[in-house]
Amino acid sequence: MAVSAAVGPGRAGSTGKARRARWREGPAGYVFLSPFLLGFMGITAIPMLYSLYLSFTNYELLGQTYDWVGLRNYRELFTNDPQFWHAVQVTVLFAFVAVPLKLAAALGVAMLLNRERRGTGVLRGLFYLPSLIGGSVAVAIIWRAMFDRTGAFNSLLAVFGVEGKPWVNDPDWALETLMLLAIWQFGAPMVIFLAGLKQVPTELYEAAAVDGAGPWRRFRNITLPMLSPVIFFNLVLETINGFQGFTSAFVLSDGTGGPTDSTLMYSLRLYDQAFTEYKMAYASAMAWVFLLAIGLLTVLLFSTGRLWVHYADEEGA
Amino acid sequence: MAGQALSSPPAPAEAGPPPRRTVREQAIAHARRRRRRAAAVRSVVRLVVILAILAVVLYPALWMVGTSFKAPDEVNSNRGLIPEQFWPANYPDGWTALPSVTFGRFFVNSAVIALATVVANCFSCLVAAYAFARLRFPLRGMWFAIMIATLLLPSHVLLVPQYVLFNYFGWINTPLPLIVPKLLATEAFFIFLMVQFMRGIPRELDEAAKIDGCSAYGIFWHVILPLSRPALVTTAIFSFIWTWNDFLTQLVYLSGVENYTIPVGLRMFQDSGGENQIGPMFAMAVLSLLPVFLFFVAFQRLLVQGINTTGLKG
Amino acid sequence: MSPGTPHADPARPAHRHRTRYLALLTAAAVALPLGLTACGGDDDKQSADPNRKIELQVFWWGGPARAENTQKVLDLYTQKHPNVTFKIEQQPNAGYFDKLATRAAGGNAPDIFQLDDGSLAEYAKRNVTLDLTKYVKNNKIDTKDIPKGLIDYGVVDGKNAGIAAAQNTPGMIYDKTVAQQYGLEEPKVGWSWEQMIAWGEQLSQKSGGQVQGIMDPSADYKALWLWLRQQDKELYTPDGKVAVSTEDVTRWFELWVDARKRKATPTADLIHTANTGDVSKQLVVTKQAGASFLWSNQLAELQKSTKNTLGVSAYPGDPKGQFARASLYWAGSRTTKEPDTVADVINFIVNDPDAAKIQGVERGLPSNLKNREIVAPTLSAPEKATVALESELNSKFGKAPPVPPKGHVKLRSELITAAETVQYGKATPQQAAEDFLAKAKAAVSG
């Protein structure tokens, strides 16, 4: 129900006319959807279902034989694997802090950069640069160099007379440096916000100005509602990405999730189980637990989204 | 910025010496000047804030460039921004690091795959998004939920099954496993992105087109497609950059050094237990940023006002 | 979740499509396991023609120097056997095993590939490697000039799974310049751990804390392993189980807690940066410590990264703890269509004198003793120092242990985590030792 509301108006009328209207669009719908359907059936569905199947076996990567073991992997995961829970804790903490801050920074800077002046394009590119660097393996070296005991961050703190810690090499602070790395890359959601801001018709602003509305009211009553589909998108996707975060954690900790498992994100643990311990079936179980948990969270987001997201294509909105 | 109230009445047309300003007119002029000054101050403050944030945000990038000019024995010990000894040799060293191919080859490979991905994604995700956002058909909700679900499964457990699948198709040792999925709308991120953008386009435009006799295809071509430019531009930018930085799938499916791409090439400099080539690696990393950065600056220009410039309204 | 669609109309196209697809899915699900369990024929009948065109895929990891060397060696082989060509797959270390495992699981393993002692048992026990025993027995792979211990280090479950590409041994790399600067003796083979720690303590004092003693090797599995062997104990039992006891590990951690108290080792965060073994981060190179614990053949590489002069010695303690280790292996794929040629190529790479000259000591000391002499004149100063050390140790090596069992890589990483909890003061040596052993045993027995 929540998802269908997110998809768009299309709630079935039970009258024959509405049903026939839907059927008339049916063929066109499936024509437009055909690449997706082909891709899903041909490329995604089988591997996904196969990994689900494997999660009920004891398949080892490169193993020659394997047997059905039912729910054993799942039981192991929940009752006999403290590192699983640790990884969950690390990941939840990471997502709850990094995602909101990243979105706030993205929206704030997007609004600052929304005017078309000379050089705005370059400015936007410069804010987006961290996202470009972030995907590169060089970022780990940069981040470690900046946030270790003798790094630039501590030099900055020294200016204020604060003695710095070895942040990235300190189990108490390594996760925070990872969060900072994620937040630093706010350029990506910022670009999406910019694109969304561009879609807000300027006559709305002009009309509001004529009516005497100040900048805050314009923001609250025009920008936010018109931008809400995009805000919603960024919220959902950044949340999903936040929970799934792999590459940054992997390169920053050299794949270890260290120091002492302080940056052991869920996906790192999963990768470790699959490719270092060859326990592919166990890793598949982890993957499907993740899908269910984040799926639930996503459904929650979609349901609450109905309350505040305003779509221009809804009748009588 | 629209918002300054018009306050003074038009000047009378008679000739003669300008009348002395009344107190009220003086106050109005005063207020207008103060507002303009306030606006100017706001602009300056805005600029300062932007630059301050930018300085903090860019420091790591500047550090990256600085380090790319450090000599091998300085790379680990000198933590500052500026190298003590300017070492541009990192650039040609990095470029010719491998005996059989130059780094330029990796650039070309990355560019080809990235551009193909951009085109494929833009096309396939747009049509899929149109179906979800605008058309009514049976099971739409179910397919939408499934599409979102594909975002949620960690990809590492799909790596081996997908490899087996692609091997079965006979696509290993070709770039097909990297491109074909993009042609088939497997990147749910972009489908969902475009759905959200499309839902910001008012239905009245669709209705208007329908009245003019457009079918679903017509509406797509005449209404949605032109107005989806911000979404397409965003998709293009992100597709390009993600592909440019994608390591594992490119590693697994491309064989032969001459087919490698930039992410694989960069890790070449990091052989742990082997050679320390941080300087050349940073040099190549800086170089590899340039195309993406330029791509971005070029394309973001297209993020212009959507609805206003088309004149479809009214 | 779907907008209320009407149900139960069997003529609806969507329903028909769904059942048809389910059948397809079931068929695929059945077919996929066959793809996953590599089902190449073990004994493909090879056609009789010895000069038929053969193309072998060769896969290894390494840097540009290794790429160049190995390419030249393979070209040399093609010169001598024109009907055999090679498809080179070489790549950086990162992701190598992901790719190898994926390819092998997908039924597409390369014909010849490189392994190390962390992966040999994993791949051999999972039946991915070609059994080379018969080639070793009938001398198609000539082992008469290769130390027996080195060959035995490639045996898993009684079968030759990999042939040692080169030899190395743990080596402690120390800073000669710094030693001279602060009036300290250079470490020698046979110094005890206590002597080495005292050296570190003095270095720390005399440099006023600038050089923080020596690297703390409590997270280094090689150090633990050698320390055990010096007490006539072992890390693993002959049948591949964890042999070390909680008491031993506790003592090991306590040794270094003590050293830290005496300021003979650096702070925990510095130790952490070096624990991954990455060459560029070693403390002896960043000048934050006077010695680092690595492999003997890494001296040359480390020397490039610092202006100080570096030297190499054995790990502290009785040198009988050290052994001749295969730094890397060449292995074949069980599903290769050309096993005889694969064995011949491996033999060539490891034994041929011209091939040895090309490879130098890039992978380590040549396995073939005769080739070591051939290669000796071509070496740089640091490389000569490495070779000198290994020659000195040759007569002092203890008996080589069996190659580590499955789960070795996990044990290594668990040791790092456990040692670091002690280094950061998050756990006592006893707690960390118990935790480590529990996880290590689980990893190795699984």
Care to describe what's here?
The complex is a heterotrimer of chains A (317), B (314) and C (446). Helix content of chain A is 71%, strand content 0%. Chain A has 14 helices and no strands. Chain A has helices at 2-7, 16-54, 72-79, 82-112, 120-134, 138-147, 152-159, 174-184, 187-198, 202-210, 215-244, 247-252, 266-276, 280-308. In chain A, helix 4 packs across helix 9 (187-198). The longest helix of chain A has 39 residues, at 16-54. Chain B starts with 22 loop residues before the first helix and ends in a 14-residue tail after the last helix. Chain B is mainly alpha-helical and 314 residues long. The model of chain B is unreliable at 1-11 and 305-314 (pLDDT under 50). Chain B has 13 helices and no strands. Chain B folds into 2 domains: 24-90, no CATH class; 96-310, MetI-like fold. Chain C is of the alpha+beta class and 446 residues long. Chain C has helices spanning 13-36, 64-80, 96-105, 120-125, 133-137, 148-152, 176-181, 193-206, 221-230, 246-261, 268-274, 299-304, 339-351, 353-359, 369-375, 381-394, 408-423, 429-445; strands at residues 54-61, 84-91, 112-115, 155-156, 159-160, 163-168, 170-175, 291-295, 310-313, 325-332, 365-366. A 6-stranded mixed beta sheet of chain C has the order 2-1-3-10-6-11. In chain C, helix 2 (64-80) links the parallel strand 1 (54-61) and strand 2 (84-91). The longest helix of chain C has 24 residues, at 13-36. Chain C is globular and about 70 Å long. The model of chain C is unreliable at 1-31 and 33-45 (pLDDT under 50). Chains A and B meet through helix 1, helix 2, helix 5, helix 6 and helix 9 of A and helix 1, helix 3, helix 4, helix 5 and helix 6 of B.
Largest sheet of chain C: 6 strands, mixed
Structural domain count of chain B: 2
The count of strands of chain B amounts to: 0
Tell me the radius of gyration of chain C. Answer: 26 Å
Q: What kind of assembly state do the chains in view correspond to?
A: heterotrimer
**Spatial extent as radius of gyration of chain B:** 28 Å
